[in-house]
Amino acid sequence: MSEPTTSTAPTNPTKIVITDCDHDSIDIERAVARDAGVELVLAQCRTEDEVIAAAAGADAIVVQYAPITAKVLDALPGLKAIGRYGVGVDTLDVEAATARGVAICNVPDYGTEDVSDHAIALAVSLARGITQLDRGVRRGDHSLGPVQPLHRIGGRVFGVVGLGLIGAATGRKAKGLGYQVIGSDPLLTAGTVTADGITVVGFEELVASADVISLHVPLNQYTHHLINSDVLDRVKPGAVLVNTCRGAVVDTDAVAAALQDGRLHAAGLDVFELEPLPRTSPLLELENAVLTPHAAWYSEESYAELKRRTVENVVEVCAGRAPRNILNSEVLNGSVPA
């Protein structure tokens, strides 16, 4: 007599949903998923309800801009991990995810060199009046008047607000150009010197003494409108402002007013409170503002690394392994309080 046969129902593969993505393709993400034996689905969500509908049954989600709130998390009880395309997680409720045992993964170092390069490029462009001179030549104006006075970079003070990976890299590069570099960071003690040779000062001292103020902080309740009208009243005459972190770290109206009345000599802004920058923004009319479209993060190399590592992180969590990058590692060892 033959042995009875038994049938085993197929196990559903791990499912990852990309809630939203404005990239040209997701070929890199699909390759990572294919190699891991994971199902990958692309949606284009903008609201909580759209995320809930698209990610039903998902083991993990990858998000670019879509809101991930407690409401979303409660509607997706099977979720194990959330991967963010990028460094900042201000669109994610990290506290709510942690309380529900959901891992939050980002890619904090994929664009360190690229963003710091961009910050330096903006700073030097402002210091030398490059864009204003270019616009003048195109109009047939070859005078130096619109950019005077220009000062030699050597010996000028470059202030870095936020001495994380990107801020520290920006400071190192500024030192290489001849700037005297100071930095401010709430996690560091004023009067100390970092391993990169950056002198740590208080925020108020930096604002009052820096010729360049370069911002490299996350957006949270403490940094929202960190640069406001009161702060701009205290900046050093002739100072320039560079922002490559988050748009809402600066009060846009206050910066525009300071550029118009001369409290700020110039500003280089890659990020804005509203993106894309509204066509009605006063910044668009100011010759002493250099504007780029949230492009500091981008290079071909950083783009590929971001896409690959974002998916790799959530794949690792779903497989029961520790990912390379996680913001709430306590969810992996079961130490989240009930």
Shape: elongated
Total count of strands? 12
In DSSP terms, counting alpha (H) and pi (I) runs of 4 or more, how many helices? 11
How big a fraction of the residues is strand? 5-15%
How is the biggest beta sheet arranged?
7 strands, parallel
Q: Strand order of the main beta sheet, please?
A: 8-7-6-9-10-11-12
Q: In angstroms, what separates the terminal alpha carbons?
A: 55 Å
Overall average residue pLDDT: 95
Folded structure, characterized:
The chain is built from 11 helices and 12 strands. The protein has 338 residues and is of the alpha/beta class. The mean pLDDT is 95. It has helices at residues 27-36, 48-54, 70-75, 94-99, 112-128, 130-138, 165-177, 203-209, 229-232, 252-261, 300-318; strands at residues 15-18, 39-42, 60-63, 81-84, 103-105, 157-161, 180-184, 199-200, 212-215, 240-243, 266-269, 289-291.
Ordered list of secondary-structure elements with their pairings:
Layout (H helix, E strand, L loop, with lengths): L14 E4 L8 H10 L2 E4 L5 H7 L5 E4 L6 H6 L5 E4 L9 H6 L3 E3 L6 H17 L1 H9 L18 E5 L3 H13 L2 E5 L14 E2 L2 H7 L2 E4 L13 H4 L7 E4 L8 H10 L4 E4 L19 E3 L8 H19 L20
Parallel strand pairs: 1-2, 1-3, 3-4, 4-5, 6-7, 6-9, 7-8, 9-10, 10-11, 11-12
